[in-house]
Amino acid sequence: MANQVDYERIGRAARARSLAGKAVIYALLTLWALMVLFPFYWMVLSSVKSYSAYNSEYVPRFFTLSPTLQNYADAFTAVSLGRYFLNTLIFTLVTTAVMLAVVVLAAFAFARLEFKGKNIAFTLFLSLMMIPNELVVITNFVTITNLGLRNTFTGLILPSVTSVFYIYLLKENFEQIPGELYRAAKVDGTSDFKYLLRVMLPISQPTIVTITILKIIECWNAYVWPRLITDNEAYFLVSNGIQEIRENGFGRENIPAMMAAVVVISVPLIVLFLIFHKKIMAGVSRGGTKG
Amino acid sequence: MKNNNLKGWLYLLPAILFLGCFMVYPLIDVLVYSFEEGYNFASQTSFGLGLYNYAYVLHDGYFLQAVKNTFILVIITVPLSTGVALLISLGLNAIKPLRNLYQTIYFLPYVTNTLAVGLVFMILFKKTAYTDGMVNLLIHFFGGESVDFIDGPYWAKMFVMCFYTVWVVMPFKVLILTSALASVNPDYYRAARVDATPKRRIFTRITLPMISPMVFYLIITGFIGAFKAYSDEVALFGTDLNAAGMNTIVGYVYDMLYGDSGGYPSYASAAALILFVIVLTITCVNLLVSKKHVHY
Fold this sequence. Notes:
The structure holds 2 protein chains of 2 kinds. By secondary structure, chain A is mainly alpha-helical. Helices cover 77% and strands 0% of the residues of chain A. Chain A has 14 helices and no strands. Chain B is built from 13 helices and 2 strands. The interface between A and B is large, with 90 and 90 residues.
């Protein structure tokens, strides 16, 4: 009898302890979530405060009772935000499309075709993965300048279209497709290129989507190369645009308008993320790095 | 067969062309640049070959400042972010409801433009004539003195820089560690439970060894990434990082190449190669250490 009571008390104590532990964990996780979300909240909040309201708040307020969209109008009229946006869209789409073509062809050659020197070529490709971008950017800058391609989309796009890592990722994926399919297609007289388009690409669609999304994120956030290669505002991407706005735009410290521009720039990727978050996270954990 | 050879190379051709022009050739070229003394960008001539560029860079006060900043940033942020990411991932692993929601929120910074969000951080930390800023409000609340984190003392700027860097790198680390934790075979935990192993012992003897390859992967990529820090600093302190005293090695390379202080590709190349050697050395040391401690 006494024993039974004891067990019950031990059980209750253990449950209480695990409950308390859970509460602490949830509290800490929520704290970090707030730290992640707070800058986003602050940027949206500041962007809907009017200029005078924002500047009269010596102690910033955590909410506003009179939201305004005026700052968004300012962001599009006072600086060429629309232009930056369009430029980034063109840059992102073209770079991603060209990259996909290059990467798919190379991955197919490495995965399916037999030719002399394939192994050596693949080893050389892999060794290029270790080369940091900072090392090659200097010469690329000189090359593009000498070719007279500064302030052109060609100059922006050309050096950004190959990725050895994506070739590697796709090659691995292609190799998992059974060889019987390939040989069957050969018997039917299907050409290699047709086989690639009709069979391999549809089967590898998840990987292709992952690569596409990762590249889009990379392009949308590109800063260093566009900054080096464009000094004409007509070719600025959003990253350069935001820097330009910070340093010369909007006259005297119009922070609400600046925040409106930041919101506009951040929204497309956040929407993309909310739609594809499972795919993006799976893709990144399979081999994305940010650096 | 001959036909096949040709076809294989034909499929590879675009990749080879792009990689050759924008990766292999620049790699050789950057070495040449770094040894060409007195290279003139306009006339594309130089006096001769030598080590002068390296000597110049190593004696440049801005470069030394950049090296100091970069090293402080690396030494603080890599262990800190990896440690906090591990704690967060353990927390995530221990809960069931809301786990996906938290994971999604934590990943959000990864997909945002770091330049854009950096501006928000600048505003949160900046102290102007009109307002002390959000963070100083917090400091006041806890009874401290307000500080200008953006144009103020060195340690304050360094704090913001480290804080923002941790904020930016966290999503990737949390993601990798949560999936590593989730993939530990549950049989080990069940066996430990049968033996009534204490929680701490389970962590040090099962969890940590099982995820150690991923932890080391994060440390290595973390070192590499932190050594290449640049755009986060631009977002916080503006493009003139030398004036702010907050330049990084990569920032020094770009400043030498372009902008008001630019036009010296030789100095830029020398600095880039010095950075490459530093990163390579540290990566090798990391790999050697991990060989000893990682359980595969």
